[in-house]
Amino acid sequence: MNYSRFINIVSAARQPSPIRVLTDLYQRSPPSMISLAGGVPNPSLFPYETTTISLKDGSKLDFGWNIMQQALQYSSSAGVPELLNWLKEFQIKIHNPPTARYSPEKGQMDICVTTGSQDGLAKVFDMVISPGDNILLDVHCYSGILSAMKPLGCNLIGVPIDKYGIIPKALKDVLSEWKPEDAKNPKSNIPKVLYTVPNGNNPTGTSMTTQRKEEIYQIAHDYDLLIIEDDPYYFLQFEKPWAPSFLSLDIDGRVIRADSFSKILSAGLWFYSFFNNGVSMDS
Question: What is the CA radius of gyration of the chain?
């Protein structure tokens, strides 16, 4: 895929922060190295030594001094490496995305950790939306998302839904104003982003079936749409087997998937992970 059409001018102009690059280099350096370049504090001065979390089942989670040092120290922008590796393995186990086996040049799946859903989604919107863009989303959408998108000056196009979410025929009807080849024309105002909550959509509670997702993904393929899959309720599905995620269907590398722990561990644990392919979250 050519991701240049999805990245807006502001994000395309951004360069990696030299301080963050130094942090990555510092983390790969031997413990004996002392660097004054990145402003990294001496962890021996941190006031916390250890911590223990007691769970309701009687078990405990103990975090020793070494782990506390790492948790309290600066880390790379994407997140703590060990956590990122665990999240990648977890996603491969649950979703088995085809892009996990791709080369980086082809759009290998990557991950970024953010502090909450609104923070992460706002970063995605800031990265891909320009004033005047046409954005596709469920006709009934979570108010927090609307609040994040509207200030960006985009045109929100609601796609009709039924009890299974976005209706593929309705999506085609909306897109019938354009031709698939318009996606190759930089001057065209053809939509380039489809945002949806595929499971337990807020406020309607609709959930997409496997067939529905496959049809929508094919339309996204035909019209070169980027799918933003906001799926905080994935692990709260009642019917088995669970419908596959858009990420699991993603052979093109056109899905940015957002997962959250706030709905399955605690509401105050605002920890979001974004899985994307080729589109740099560092932008």
Answer: 21
Per DSSP bridges, beta strands 134-138 and 193-196 are parallel
Instruction: Find all residues with CB under 8 Å of 58, minimum gap 6, and list them.
Output: none
Per-residue tokens: 101: 């086996």
Q: pLDDT tens for residues 59-94?
A: 999 999 999 988 898 887 777 888 889 989 999 999
More reliable by pLDDT, 76 or 214: 214
Task: Enter the pTM of the model.
Answer: 0.89
Class of residue 86 by CB neighbours under 10 A (exposed 0-12, middle 13-18, buried 19+)? exposed
Query: In 3D, which of 125, 92, 126 has the Cα closest to residue 228?
Result: 125
- Would you state the pLDDT for residue 83? 87
Please tell me the distance from the alpha carbon of residue 189 to that of residue 178, in angstroms, as a whole number: 9
Half-sphere exposure in the Cβ direction for 39 (13 Å, CA): 3
Nearest CA to 50 out of 38, 39, 66 is that of 66
Candidates 150, 228, 225, 222; CA nearest to 192 is 225
- Please give the Cα distance from 277 to 102 (Å, whole number): 9
Among 130-139, 208-217, 255-264, the minimum mean pLDDT is found in 255-264
